[in-house]
Amino acid sequence: MIVFDLLCGAGHRFEGWFSSREDFDGQKKHRIIQCPTCGSPQIERVPSATRANLGAVEPKKPAPAAPGKPEEKKTPEMEGKDPFAIAQMLYSRMLDELLTKSEDVGKDFPKVAREIFYKQDAARAIRGNATQEEHDELVDEGIPVARLPVPPRERLN
Ligand SMILES: [Zn+2]
After folding, report:
1. CA of residue 11 to ligand 1 center, whole Å
2. What angle, 0 to 180 degrees and rounded to 10, lies between the N-to-C axes of helices 132-140 and 109-117?
């Protein structure tokens, strides 16, 4: 399944689940998709920057580097800290996790992401660089990629 962020002609944003890109195109063409808010069949896809993992993984076997949920249990180091500091700490841990458990493929990212998606390469979590254009192309092909909101910093150990 792929999740697309969708936008109707009246500006309502919602999610749609499809078995493939073709499935989405077919449903859109036949006006099967309708806005849950106003019922408009005029639907466009919008780029999503909030979802998916790095690289493509088998749905049933999440790669070890799939971003986990931030821990919700309080630990002693969180005691007395304000929520923003805690959120920042969890966030930086999540990034560390992503960076240490994924393979850095640098500028080959779009190429490798595609190869993994089309099963020409071993499934694994990767990270690297992509231009805005390359990113959009990957998203258009239904390849799950996520943009890191900050430039990755390498861990020093
Ligand atoms: Zn609508």
Report:
1. 6
2. 10
Give the SS3 label for residue 5: strand
Residue 58 CB-density burial (10 A; 0-12 exposed, 13-18 middle, 19+ buried) = exposed
Tell me how far the alpha carbon of residue 34 lies from the centroid of ligand 1, in angstroms: 8
CA distance 113 to 133: 15
CB atoms inside a 10 Å sphere around CB 146:
18
| Residue 123 to residues 96, 129, 145, Cα–Cα distance (Å) | 21, 18, 14
Could you list the pLDDT tens digit for every one of the 157 residues in the chain? 888 999 999 999 999 999 998 999 999 999 999 999 999 999 999 876 555 444 554 455 545 555 555 555 666 777 777 777 777 777 777 777 777 778 888 888 899 888 888 888 888 888 888 888 888 888 898 888 877 755 555 555 4
